[in-house]
Amino acid sequence: MRETFIATTTALLDEDPRTALVLADISADAFGPALRRHPDRALNVGIREQLMVGVAGGLALTGMRPYLHSYAPFLIDRAYEQIKLDLGHQDTGAVLVSIGGSYDAAGAGYTHQSPGDVALLDTLDGWTVQVPGHRDEVPAMLRAAARHDDRVYLRLVEQENSRAYPDAGKLRVLKRGGPLVLAVGPMLDPVLAATRDMDVTVAYTNTPRPLDTEGLRLLTEAEVVVVEPYLAGTSARLVSEALNGLPHRSLHLGVGRAEVRNYGTWRDHARVHGLDEAGLRRSLQDFLGTGA
Amino acid sequence: MTVTTLRRLTGDQKHAPSAHSTLDVIRVLYERVLRITPETADDPDRDRFLLSKGHGPAAYYAVLADRGFIPDGWLDRMGEWHSRLGTHPDRVLIPGVEAGTGSLGHGLGLAVGVALGLRAQGYAQTRTFVLLGDAELDEGSNHEAIAYAAAIQLPLTAIVIDNQSATHGWPGGIPARFPGWSVSMVDGHDHDEIEHGLQVRSGRPHLVVAAVEKKG
Question: Which domain holds residue A246?
Fold first, then answer.
């Protein structure tokens, strides 16, 4: 996904003089040609994430369209107040593109992980959050974001589904049956595997904000399970609001709050958080009953 | 006239000293330096002024009223419900205000982005100014911007109002915190000195330290 992001954003810089790129050292080598070709609007501020967002806010105030990029813990967690004030409070926007997400940097430990990035943005107004499940879903998201001035967050991770669904901005049903299981981004393949022989409806979205609440309401009968690749329960409030007045039970699966002080790979962390096929199957069976 | 206007403002007692410390610099900016009027407030090549020191914007509001950006009548209701003037300025609510500020340490980073955006769009004559307080320099985010602006020789002008209000002071002086910048030290109440400092175009970032009486 990261390579797709770099290729598409480099092309956007070539095509659209309104586009700007602001880096804080991460991926600067990969963006080398863009930095050399467009020194006036492809910028590397060094290891200064607060400044990266502040500069983006200033660029946006002059009418440019800045794309920012770093590891999620530095782009979102560290620069949270700049995101809140230098973009939102100024009534300007930018396109924030993270890598690393929840636990891609498994071997690097908690300092380089951000399971709470989407939850942090949920405290703010007006953010579109896109969580592609496949690299081929990324280019259209980046290009669409160049055509307006709103606030957009793209969350790119290593885990990918086996196929792309570029039209999954709204809920896209991939399997029809009983209770709804909503898979967000790269959670789709493990959800499909875990529910292979279950009587459930599986829907997919790569755009959890704004959440397709209308689709959610249409597809939910009495039970809904949301499987997100970030902090468990991040979407609980929105799901609850969407289903207001409909008697229902809900289960929210995702990354746990407790810090996992083990390294390994993202697969190890997915297993510990119950987000692999076996873990999801256990959780779904516990919630829905073994007859599901 | 601005002093009289300033006296109309109420509801900013808490930040009154910081509001008055900025008055002369902001007057000189608007009366002698900035290429901006209410009629050109949306022109893309207008000069930009960002009040990073959003605390105590009374002087800023008084100057904006005197220069015709906002009606005088707004000053009488500062901080009240449905007033457009808060104790920190909001760019969405106030014509002529380039950035909404209040939380310290944001204006300089924004100003660097503004200067870069103007340069990228070819507005070579357009200038960017940002005003900070000496205590505001305690915020680490400023130092990210100070170092980067020097590294890329970005021509913007930062004004620091020095009323010796930083809790631990600045041993070695404020300019020592701006390596790579050109510097003017001025009397923060002397309009000619202030203007001289603001007119400097050194081809790199420029610092104007405007000394005023110590904050009581």
Answer: 172-288
Last residue of a domain, one of A156, A190, A209: A156
ipTM of the complex: 0.95
Asked if A191 and A253 touch (Cβ cutoff 8 Å), the reply is no
The mean pLDDT of A180-197, rounded to a whole number, is 98
**Rg (alpha carbons) of chain B, rounded to whole number:** 16
With a CB-CB cutoff of 8 Å, which residues 53-92 of chain B face chain A?
Answer: 90-92
Given this model, what pLDDT does residue B216 score?
A: 75
Same domain, A13 and A137: yes
Count of structural domains, chain A: 2
Chain A contact for B99, CB < 8 A? yes
| Residues A26 and A75 both lie in one domain | yes
| Prediction pTM value | 0.96
Same domain, yes or no: A65 and A92: yes
Partner A contacted by B145 (CB < 8 A): yes
Q: How far is CA A276 from the centre of its chain?
A: 18
Mean pLDDT by 10 residues, chain B (216 residues): 66 58 96 97 97 91 97 94 95 97 97 98 97 96 98 98 93 95 98 98 97 89
Task: Dump pLDDT digits (tens) for A67-119.
Answer: 999 999 999 999 999 999 999 999 999 999 999 999 999 999 999 999 999 99
Q: Phi and psi at residue A199, in whole multiples of 5°?
A: -85, 80
Considering only CB atoms, which chain A residues are within 8 Å of B145? Answer: 48, 51, 54
All structural domains of chain B, each given as residue ranges with its CATH number in brackets, are 2-211 (3.40.50.970)
Does residue A275 sit in the same domain as residue A215?
yes
Q: What is the DSSP letter of B216?
A: -
Same domain, A152 and A195: no
Residue after which a domain boundary falls, among A156, A187, A217: A156
Decide if B113 touches A, using CB distance below 8 A: yes
- Partner residue facing B114 (CB), from A41, A62, A82: A62
